[in-house]
Design brief:
- The chain has 14 helices and 17 strands.
- It has 408 residues and is α/β, with parallel strands linked by helices.
- The protein has 2 domains: 134 residues, Aspartate Aminotransferase, domain 1 (Alpha-Beta Complex), CATH 3.90.1150; 257 residues, Aspartate Aminotransferase, domain 2, CATH 3.40.640.10.
- Strand 7, helix 7 and strand 8 form a beta-alpha-beta unit.
- Helix 2 packs antiparallel against helix 10 and helix 11 packs parallel to helix 14.
Length: 408
C-alpha cells in the first residue's frame, strides 16, 4: 500500500482543525470518502438522476443499470451466490431489524431461544429483545471471557436444540474482538438454528466470504467502508428470503394489487418498497471498486500492523487501560485514561486536531460488563499512519498531565 497516494484521494483529510492538521481516528463511527466515491455520486445526480425500475426513458434505464450494477458488486464483494440475495437497506440497523421483524417473529414462540452476546451493539440487541417480548421466546447470552473474547465451549453450552436464532457481531465496535463466525455458524446449524451476523465493523476491514462462513444473514453499512451514509445491505440465503414477508409496503414491491388483496414481487424487490437510495447505492458500488483496487487483504495487513503499533505505543502511557485482547483484533483501541472522563479526553484531543469517539458506543450492557460508564475510542482505517498514532500518544500524555497537574 502506498499510504501517501491513498491519503491524497481523501479531500477531507487535508485540512486543519483548531490550528492542527486533522488526525481522523473515528472511522469505526463513519469512514471518510475518497474522491472517486464523491465523483460517482455527483455524476449520478448531474447526468443520470431518475427513478429506477419504472421509466422506459434513457435516464431511467441508466439509473436502473447503475443501481443494479451496484447490487451485483455487493454480491461479488461478499461472494454471494446471486445478486438477488442482496437487499439494499439504510444500513446495518435496518437490515438487522428486517431479519428480526420478518423472519424471527414468524419462527419464534414460547420455549424457543434467541442467542446473542453482551458485546452487541444496540442495533443487534434491542431488535431481539423486542422479538422475545412479542413471541415469548427466551433471550440468552453467550458469556464473555475476561479479555472480552468468547470461547467455543461457551457457545456449545449456550446454543441448544431450542435455539431458533443466533445473532452476533463479527467484530466488536468496542473491544475489536473478531468472533469465530464460521465455527459458531456450524454449531448453530447443528442445533437447527439460523445465524445472523452484524458485519458493520468487519466488512470495511477484512475479506468477507458469506459462503465460506456459511452464514444465513449478513448485514453491513456503507458509510463505514468509504460509501455515503444511508446505504447498506442485507445478504440472506435464498430459501430463507423467499419465505419472509415484507415489513414495508408501497410502490415497486408489489406484483399485483386488488382492492382487498395484494401479492409481492420476487426477492430482493419485495423488501425494497418505495424509491430506493439510488445515489447511495451508486456510491457504495464506487466504494467497493476503490477498496478492491487496493485489496482487502492489503487493507487488513495495514490495519493489523497499525493496531499493533498503537497498542504498544499507548500501553506505555501510565494510567491508561485498554479494553479487549492485545492480538486478533480489528483496527480500534478503546481505552480510559486514569480518572479523566472520556468526554474530557476527546475534547482535549479535538483541540489538537485529533478526532476520536467518546461515550458508551451504543453498547451500554458491555460498558456495565467492563464496569465503566463510558470510554474513549481511537479507530483506524486504510488512510491512517504511524505518525498519527504518535500524535495521539503525545496528546494523551499532555491530556493526562493537564488534568493531573494543570498548566500555567
Amino acid at each position: 500500500m502506498n499510504i501517501n497516494a491513498i491519503r491524497e484521494q481523501f479531500p477531507i483529510l487535508h485540512q486543519e482543525i483548531n490550528g492542527h492538521p486533522l488526525v481522523y481516528l473515528d472511522s469505526a463511527a463513519s469512514s471518510q470518502k475518497p474522491r472517486s466515491v464523491i465523483d460517482a455520486v455527483n455524476r449520478y445526480y448531474e447526468l443520470d438522476n431518475a427513478n429506477v425500475h419504472r421509466g422506459v426513458h434513457t435516464l431511467g434505464s441508466r439509473a436502473t443499470d447503475a443501481f443494479e450494477g451496484a447490487r451485483a458488486k455487493v454480491a461479488a464483494f461478499l461472494n454471494a451466490e446471486t445478486p438477488e440475495q442482496i437487499i439494499f437497506t439504510r444500513g446495518t440497523t435496518t437490515a438487522l431489524n428486517l431479519v428480526a421483524s420478518s423472519y424471527a417473529r414468524a419462527v419464534c414462540g414460547e420455549g424457543d431461544e434467541i442467542v446473542i452476546t453482551p458485546m452487541e451493539h444496540h442495533s443487534n440487541l434491542i431488535p431481539w429483545q423486542q422479538v422475545a417480548k412479542a413471541t415469548g421466546a427466551t433471550l440468552k447470552y453467550i458469556p464473555l471471557q475476561p479479555d472480552g473474547t468468547i470461547s467455543i465451549d461457551d457457545v456449545e453450552s449456550t446454543i441448544t436444540p431450542n435455539t431458533k436464532v443466533v445473532s452476533i457481531t463479527h467484530v466488536s465496535n468496542v473491544l475489536g474482538v473478531v468472533n469465530p463466525i464460521k465455527e459458531i455458524a456450524a454449531i448453530a446449524h447443528r442445533n437447527g438454528a439460523v445465524i445472523v451476523v452484524d458485519g458493520a465493523q468487519s466488512t470495511p476491514h477484512k475479506r468477507v466470504d458469506v459462503r465460506d462462513l456459511n452464514v444465513d444473514f449478513y448485514a453491513f453499512s456503507g458509510h463505514k467502508m468509504c460509501a455515503p451514509t444511508g446505504i447498506g445491505a442485507l445478504y440472506g440465503k435464498k430459501a430463507l428470503l423467499n419465505k419472509m414477508e415484507p415489513i414495508e409496503f408501497g410502490g415497486e414491491m408489489i406484483d399485483f394489487v386488488d382492492l382487498y388483496e395484494s401479492t409481492w414481487k420476487e426477492i430482493p424487490y419485495r423488501f425494497e418498497g418505495g424509491t430506493p437510495i439510488i445515489a447511495g447505492a451508486v456510491g457504495l458500488g464506487a466504494a467497493i471498486d476503490f477498496l478492491e483496487s487496493i485489496g482487502m487483504d492489503e487493507i487488513d495487513r495495514h490495519e493489523k500492523k497499525l493496531t499493533a503499533y498503537a497498542y504498544d505505543k499507548l500501553s506505555t502511557i501510565e494510567g491508561i487501560e485498554i479494553y479487549g485482547p492485545k492480538t486478533d483484533r480489528v483496527g480500534l483501541l478503546t481505552f480510559n485514561l486514569g480518572d479523566v472522563h472520556p468526554h474530557d479526553v476527546a475534547t482535549v484531543l479535538d483541540s489538537k486536531g485529533i478526532a476520536v469517539r467518546a461515550g458508551h458506543h451504543c453498547c451500554q450492557p458491555l460498558m456495565r460488563w467492563l464496569n465503566v460508564s463510558a470510554t474513549a475510542r481511537a479507530s483506524f482505517y486504510l488512510y491512517n499512519t504511524e505518525d498519527e498514532i504518535d500524535r495521539l500518544a503525545d496528546a494523551l500524555i499532555q491530556t493526562k498531565e493537564f488534568f493531573g497537574h494543570g498548566i500555567e
